[in-house]
Amino acid sequence: CECELKDWFMWFMRTQICIMTWPRLGSSTVGNQSRWDIPVPYERSVNLSKNSKGVIPRAFEQFRLKSCVDFKPGQQKSFTSLWRVVKGTCWSYIGRSSPGGQTLSIGERCGRKGIVEHQFLHALGLNHDENVFTTQESPYDYYSVMHLDKNAFKNFNGPTIITKSPELQDVIGQLMEMSEYDAIELNKLYKCNSSVSFLDHCSFDEESLCEMSVSSAAGYGWQREKSVSGINVTDHTYLGKEQNGTSFFMHFSTERRNEGDAARLESKTLTPTRDCKVQCLQFYYYHSGHESDPLNIWIRELQNQADSTGALRLMDQITETPGNYWKLHHVQLNANKSFQVVFEARKGAGNSNGGFSLDDINISETECPLIWQIRDIEKELNSGFRELYSPLYYSSDGYRFGARLLESRNQLTISLSLVSGACDEQLQWPCPWRQITVQILDQNPHIQKRMSFEQSVTTDPDLTRYASRDLCTK
């Protein structure tokens, strides 16, 4: 075991063996009879807080992104999982314990995505991670959302769990979201071969280019590169990490090209399966060309299996002053049928010494977030800045808002404010019962392996100011 448990805490666990089944290998504990049928029906208690009612669907989306486990609202006569609020507590049975349904409690202070995931993973059959033995297939996971923290069940005599690696003492017990190995355990338990909402990922490390195709009118186009001479650009996937020698990205050079020269990079055909026909395209790009060079993002929607050309629709265009660094970009798609994503780089009117680079493309059947990317945040922190202001955004229902990042006493605080917008006369005021979620994005190149910190706040018309100490981060 990779954690040393204090004697009294070991005694506590041993007393539980009589009433709970503890695993011997891996963190899953249930057999076939204790697994749920998929999708899992659920019913939310009317007493559940409004904030938790918004957080729970966000947790569901992580299960759909990282596994084949899905959920559907159920009726009293057929539900197999019931959300019922128990004030001040968060708990769940482990696995399917009752054929007629069972309670899963999300208390008043449990309305965080990581806590909801933790309890629902219990209900699906996973136990606490510190109770497992390390195997070659399942290494000890300090980052598991199922791991208790160092002070679990403390009696004020110091930590109850001590990691053998001291630098990981403050890592255990994270409540951001399920880890990569949590998802592996869940997929193994439910025999998943795919996920509900994940469509594709490509880092271009394989020569197959993830079945993407390249085309250009003049015989040149997107090239698979490790680096580009004359431009300070290398692979994004292993940015800041030790590279394994097989990391690549795609690059289209606009240097010494004629205005209008273009090349396309087309994804394989993807087929939406969810009822809500929305998809999010995420990718990293590096613009080293001229500000007049555009990067167009199209989708080619195919009408049927015999249709090989489809209809192209322009979804977004990037034209900006070159940044000479990797930037994350999101494009909301709305394909109703099978489709391809097409990246078209084009030479503009100005002189160029670079071009466009692409890496780490992810496509999922989810909504895209609004992104505030702060360049060189460590440099900003070291410079002693007091506050930074985001661009202004519109919510999906028309409210305009902005964010402020404040540094004070070695803490970072994010605050959000509504501002006047174009739709104000048609909106409901004072913006009642709207939930906003602030997320510090884990920029793992693979969307299914991300562990992002987030906190949600729901507006109450009887209050004028909202605060959450969990939004303050050292």
TrEMBL record:
InterPro entries, sorted:
ConA-like_dom_sf, MAM_dom, MetalloPept_cat_dom_sf, Peptidase_M12A, Peptidase_Metallo, TRAF-like, TRAF1-6_MATH_dom
This entry carries the following GO cellular component terms, namely:
membrane
Any signal peptide, and if so, which residues?
none
UniProt gene name:
LOC107685896
Domain MAM, first and last residues per copy: 200-370
Q: Name one GO molecular function term.
A: metalloendopeptidase activity
According to the record, cofactor stoichiometry and binding are noted as:
Binds 1 zinc ion per subunit.
Print the keywords alphabetically.
Hydrolase, Metal-binding, Metalloprotease, Protease, Zinc
The Swiss-Prot or TrEMBL record lists the needed cofactor(s) as: Zn(2+)
* Enzyme Commission designation: 3.4.24.-
Q: Per its UniProt record, what Gene3D superfamilies does this chain match? A: 2.60.120.200, Apoptosis, Tumor Necrosis Factor Receptor Associated Protein 2, Chain A (2.60.210.10), Collagenase (Catalytic Domain) (3.40.390.10)
Q: Could you confirm whether the keyword Protease appears in this record?
A: yes
> Where do the Peptidase M12A domain residues begin and end?
27-193
Instruction: Write out the GO biological process terms.
Output: proteolysis
User: In the UniProt record, does the keyword Thylakoid occur?
Assistant: no
Q: What protein does this entry describe?
A: Metalloendopeptidase
Give binding positions for Zn(2+): H118, H122, H128
